[in-house]
Amino acid sequence: MFGLGMPELLVIFLIALLIFGAAKLPQIGSSLGTAIREFKKTVEKPPQETTPEPPDEILCSQCRQPLQEDWTACPHCGVKREA
């Protein structure tokens, strides 16, 4: 574990005990464990795939003007409508 042995971990624990005190140490450990657990859950969750909703209106691919369904080309710019 990062090259830390038992003596190093004991020194780190004693320093933390002196800095935070015996009453705060369990609270710090609990909140740290909760944070790590939430981080792991977020990282391991598969991404949700979103499906794009079909547009309510048909737009010209070049000038972005609305088109009617029966039009084969845009009357504004003359670009043929994509199928």
Automatic annotation (TrEMBL):
<dbReference type="InterPro" id="IPR006312">
    <property type="entry name" value="TatA/E"/>
</dbReference>
<dbReference type="GO" id="GO:0008320">
    <property type="term" value="F:protein transmembrane transporter activity"/>
</dbReference>
<keyword id="KW-0653">Protein transport</keyword>
<keyword id="KW-1133">Transmembrane helix</keyword>
<keyword id="KW-1003">Cell membrane</keyword>
<comment type="subunit">
    <text>Forms a complex with TatC.</text>
</comment>
<comment type="function">
    <text>Part of the twin-arginine translocation (Tat) system that transports large folded proteins containing a characteristic twin-arginine motif in their signal peptide across membranes. TatA could form the protein-conducting channel of the Tat system.</text>
</comment>
<dbReference type="GO" id="GO:0043953">
    <property type="term" value="P:protein transport by the Tat complex"/>
</dbReference>
<keyword id="KW-0813">Transport</keyword>
<dbReference type="Pfam" id="PF02416">
    <property type="entry name" value="TatA_B_E"/>
</dbReference>
<keyword id="KW-0811">Translocation</keyword>
<keyword id="KW-0472">Membrane</keyword>
<keyword id="KW-0812">Transmembrane</keyword>
<protein>
    <recommendedName>
        <fullName>Sec-independent protein translocase protein TatA</fullName>
    </recommendedName>
</protein>
<dbReference type="GO" id="GO:0033281">
    <property type="term" value="C:TAT protein transport complex"/>
</dbReference>
<dbReference type="InterPro" id="IPR003369">
    <property type="entry name" value="TatA/B/E"/>
</dbReference>
<comment type="similarity">
    <text>Belongs to the TatA/E family.</text>
</comment>
